[in-house]
Every structure is written in C-alpha cells, then in structure tokens.
Sequence to fold (292 residues):
Amino acid sequence: MADNAVDEDNRVAVVTGGAGGIGRAAVERWLALGWSVVAADLNAERGAELLAEVDGGGRLLFVPVDVSIEEDMAGLIDTAVDRFGRLDAMFNNAGIGGAFGPITEQTVADWDATFAVNLRSVFLGTKHAARAMIAGGRPGAIVNTASVAALTGGGGPQAYSATKAGVVSLTKSTAVELAEHHVRVNAVCPGAVYTELLHRGDPEHTDSWRREIQPWPDRGDAAAIADVAIWLASDEARFVTGTSVVADGGLLAATPRLMDHDLSHMRSMSGIAWGTTGRRAEVRRLAPTPES
Fold:
C-alpha cells in the first residue's frame, strides 16, 4: 500500500467519462459520501474544470485516459490503487454516440471506433478493475453504462445500440465469472438523459420530442442515473449482480421509436459523433434517394 493511502475505511471508486454528464454526477455523489474518486476522461480540458470546480478535499484525482487503449486503462487502475490504496468500485461509463447514418453508408472505421470506445473500454475496465479487486481481497462492484437502445430496435443508431447490447451481455457473463471473488457486475440502462451526448447543445429542441415518447413528465438528468449506479455499487445492493437496471422514465415501456423522432435526420447523413471527448464530429451528407 502506498504511503499516502487513505484510511482503510475510506472506499475508492474509478469513473470513466468522469469529467462530464453522468460520470461527473457520479464523481460528485461519491465524494459527498466520503469516498475517494479517480475520474478519467479523454477531454483533459474538462478534467481541469472538474478539479477547479469540485472540492475533493484531497480525495479527487483526474487522469487523462483513452478508454479504448489497454495501457491507459491498466495505468488508470494502477494509479487509483497507488494513490488511495484500494479499489472498491469501477464505473465503466465513458461512451460516444458513435457511427450513424444508413447502414449502407457507414464506414468500417467509424463502426470500429464506436465499438472501441463503447464496448472495448468496458472489457478493459472490467479486466483491470477485477484484477485489482481480487488482489485486494475485498468485495468489489463494477457498474457499466448501457442504454435502453440495447433493449429495443430503433432506440438509437445501429452501432451504438449494438455496443450497448454488448455491454449488457458482457455484464451478465462477467457477473457469473467474478461472483466467486465477491465482485459484483451490473449495468444501468438510461433513457433520454439530458447530457450533451443527447441534446448536443439544444436541450429545448430535444425536450419537445422527449415529451412525445417518455411517459414520466420530468426530464431525466445525469444525477438520477448516477444515483442508480452508486446504489448498484453500494452494500445495499450486495445481493444484486448480473442485472441491468432500466432508468428511463417509462420510455421503454412506451415502446419508443427514437429513430422516428429526433434521430430521423440521420438518414440523410453519415459519420461519427465523438460526444464530449473534445474530438470534432465527422459528417458526410448523403445524396437524396428516389424514395426521399
């Protein structure tokens, strides 16, 4: 254990995508509960803002990380253990909107990049967090951010939906494998949550179609999803593993067709959306088809 490790009773969480949206909300919640937190994000500028705006009292560390690269993820877990002496919870939350457009127009590069960020990162986070938890000899919890798009057709772009379905499946299989080590693995499936990944800077426009497809009258916010993730990592959920908790304001129950609402414009373009990583989206306008 490192010389500067926190007290044995202080728990430690790692959050990917921790500089904004659901990830930042989870960082703030865990800090308020007295945990130490390592926030990881590709967007170093937002990471600096997090450190400047959130008083971690010495319990908050930011690490710039590309979650699709194994060396980065292994180093992230090592940094958490070296700094704070243990790892109790891993929140594999980082993700992007990814490849979009008609399936006939998407590129292999965009498709592969979406899987690298949204699914490979969960594999890497689970792999290295589980190693640390098993070596530490304590119960641990891994929580993955999936989506309602994993559970229905038309709930999001094809690549995004496929990656999130992969997250749900990986959650189940690793929960079975890691149970003997007292490491629980669960997922949260958000619906329409008001982060930049969804509204892309125009929350009022997004709100108009959200009211058409979501029964619950209130907007979903990042803190609501973070609360579910933190509960899944808590002792109160100590008998919960291998499950995916839907937190969507009844959206899935109403059988949404998101591609027929806000995402319908994507049929006229193709490319990849990088979310809040700081990378610019790539958009290719498609020629009109005879049917359009």
Observations:
- The radius of gyration is 19 Å.
- The mean pLDDT is 88.
- The beta strands are 12-16, 36-41, 60-64, 89-92, 98-100, 140-145, 183-190, 244-247, 269-273, 282-285.
- DSSP finds eight helices and ten strands in the chain.
